[in-house]
Amino acid sequence: MNKIELKFQKQYDCKIIIKKDILTKIDHYLIPLLTGNHIVIITNNLVKNLYGDNISKIISKKNITVDFIEVPDSESSKSLTVAGMIYDELLQLKADRSTVLITLGGGVIGDLGGFIASTFMRGIPFIQIPTTLLAQIDSSIGGKVAIDHFKAKNIIGSFNHPIANFIDPNVLISLPVSHLKNGITEAIKIAIIFSPDFFTWIAENLDKILQKDEESLGFLIKEAAQLKIKTVLEDPWEKNQRHFLNLGHSIGHAIESVKGYETISHGEAVAMGIVLETRIAYQKRICSLETKEKIENIFQKIDILPEVCLDKETLGKYWNSLLLDKKNKNGIIRFVLPEKIGKVQMFQPIYKEDLEFAFNSLR
Question: Is 78 known to be catalytic?
């Protein structure tokens, strides 16, 4: 018998540039990255009017063809149906492997566009331009792209890093405070996992951040991004410690799936997920009462914790959703639980009684 072994290692190069007003000079950073003369921007109508038209005007002066594909700004856009419509439009626009796809918008646009870029013609280059705080510090970094299944969030996806990620803190000035809170939640999550100093800084500067203080927002983005980048570089394929970034997302995704993606924001769901998973950690004596109270207090101060259904039928639906969680291994449900601010662990097994305890504690 002849045995032929093939070993492949995929190499990614991604530039992440955080710079105020970078969008007004986007041609200086973008043009050198192009291998062709065609760009397709996936965005929504609001962001197109705010930033997309001006970007197109700047780039078009360099003899680059710019086309737009608009999708609704909602989680429901992350679907196979919408993906199919985008494939159709890319074919009509005669996009090929030299075409660069740009995602201009929040996490929904980035996840959807990145998934399209990874699958159209087996992969075309793409660039992220995130316009929400949540996307700037979380979803645009790390190469995780996906669409949803009606039974589970982000269950259809891949790893696909952009060739560049242009982050402009100034676009957050037009961001509603409710959207800003979603991003702050992810920054808090990162701090709980990795950095007690960053957690303390966020707690002490929450009012400035919510008031969109320029210096505070800039520091928040830089610090959160650097902590996530460090983890991604150490574990790019989410085999080990990168799993820790899912703190709050096990229960959070279950809440989103059951409650409905359009009725609750990702930040609200993750905030509640972190609080509930922390209560499980305290009940199992993994974390102290002081840690539990610090985590709950900071989310209460942001005023982001949503109301959730606590009836028996809904709790059963939460559990069924958790059975599909990507972190599960050999049928065993695993949660990321905090030990203290700056340190978490992967804990298993999690039982239905643990979930019921956490939700019933809200009563």
Answer: no
Which of 75, 223, 238, 256 is catalytic? The answer is 238
- Regarding the domain delimited by 197-360, which CATH topology (the fold level of the hierarchy) does it fall under? Dehydroquinate synthase-like, alpha domain (1.20.1090)
Find the DSSP H helices in 284-342.
289-302, 312-322
334 as an active site residue: the answer is no
Active site residue 266: yes
Is 215 catalytic? The answer is no
Query: By the 8 A CB rule, do 342 and 195 touch?
Result: yes
Each domain of the chain, given as residue ranges in start order, spans: 15-173, 197-360
Given 253, 259, 294, 327, which residue is catalytic?
253
- The 10s digit of each residue's pLDDT in 133-158 is 999 999 999 999 999 988 888 899 99
Query: Strand, coil or helix: what is 285?
Result: coil
217-237 pLDDT, tens digit each: 999 999 999 999 999 989 888
Look at the domain 15-173 and name its fold: Rossmann fold (3.40.50)
What residues are paired with 300 via a beta bridge? none
Global pTM value: 0.91
